[in-house]
Amino acid sequence: xxxxxxxxxxxxxxxxxxxxxxxxxxxxxxxxxxxxxxxxxxxxxxxxxxxxxxxxxxxxxxxxxxxxxxxxxxxxxxxxxxxxxxxxxxxxxxxxxxxxxxxxxxxxxxxxxxxxxxxxxxxxxxxxxxxxxxxxxxxxxxxxxxxxxxxxxxxxxxxxxxxxxxxxxxxxxxxxxxxxxxxxxxxxxxxxxxxxxxxxxxxxxxxxxxxxxxxxxxxxxxxxxxx
Length: 227
Prior knowledge:
The protein is mainly α. It has helices spanning 3-9, 14-23, 37-47, 51-58, 65-76, 81-91, 98-103, 113-124, 129-142, 150-157, 164-180, 182-190, 196-208, 214-222. The radius of gyration is 19 Å and the shape is globular.
């Protein structure tokens, strides 16, 4: 057992472990410690910047879910954009679950949108499930507001996949796009550019959103497709 693992074991929560295991069925329960996120983020904050943290970032692959989460939280704290992207490109191929993927939100992205969009495009073109999911998440978090372009909708619509966790992310992205860019996103559904399952899940998520008007919800329901 490594020194980092010993410290993580001291934070484990057996009661929370079962709950986490149900949320993330793709990860073997034996690889889950059940550490609560606030405790793990606090550990990451104290650990960041130490020589041991730099060594930990090189020690891939990790075994425990929480080691991957710690890795993600350390990357989030990298202020230099180039260094952050380099760390992401090393780490993303080892991400094996939606929770670790979706927890990655580097603060430096906010100030580098012009460069970030090209990296997001590159991640979308990966052959790795969670790298693509991460790319979609970047588009959803950073490019549906002032930096939006309709072509970004095309990028996500063009992803063909049978992977559940990618289809779910596509649906989440387009439901969010409908809330923020209804006029631009609606043709994706009207033109049936998504597979039936993702199409209908997008509508389901949009109808559940408080940001979609009752009139919009009523129309979206008419676009549901038969499976």
